C-alpha cells in the first residue's frame, strides 16, 4: 500500500475530478484525502452515501480535516483517520478538506503529522492506499512536507504550450525540493480526439528537459515519467458528480482512469518508476 500525492501547477485544472475518478476504479482499498490549501469542493460536488450519513445526501463539511485537526493537536495516530472520513454514493471513502483558503492559514502545522499518519495508514498491516489531492502547488508550499512523505508524486497537466511550460518549471523545482524523495510521475489530461499525440508530446518535452539538465550536470534526484493520460470528458465528469455505475463505467473518463489506476498501482509495487508506458494503443 502507498501514499500518492496528486497535484498540478498554475492553471492546470482537474485534480479533484482526477482523484475521485482514480479512487472510484482503484484496484485496492483506497482513501481519497482532500488536502488542497485553497479550499476543496467535494462537499459541494459529490453526494454522500445515505446509509453512512444518517440519511443525508450531503457530505458534512465539519467532518474531515477540520475535525481531524482538533484531534491532531493532542497527537495523531493512523487509526484515528477513519473516524473523520465519510463515504460517497458508490462506496468511495473520502476525507473532506477545508472549504476556504482562510481556514488553511491556521492549519499549516497539520501537514507534518497528517502526512506521517497517512503514511502509517498506507503501510500498516491491512492498510489502504491514500490518494492525497493537493490541488495546485506553489513555491515553498507547506504541502512539501506531505510530498516528501509520499511514495509517489503525480502531477497533472494539459498538453497546451502554456501548461507544459509551467509543468516543466514545476518539475525542475520539485525534483530539487524533493531531492532524495519520492519519484515524480505525470498524467496528461488529454482530448480523446488527440489522445496519443498529447501524451507523446508531453513525454518528449520532459525527456528533453531532463537531457538538458544532465548536460549541465543538474541531474534530477528522481526520474520523471509520463504515466499516461486521463480523457477530458465533460459528460463523464458530470456523471461522476452524482451517479455511479451504468453509463459512468462506459465513459472515456472512467475507462482512461482505470488504465492509469492499474498502471500506478503496478508501479508502486515495484518502485522506483520503470520505463514510461507507451502512448500507442489508447482509445
UniProtKB/TrEMBL annotation:
It comes from the Bacteria. This is ParA family protein. It comes from Actinomadura harenae.
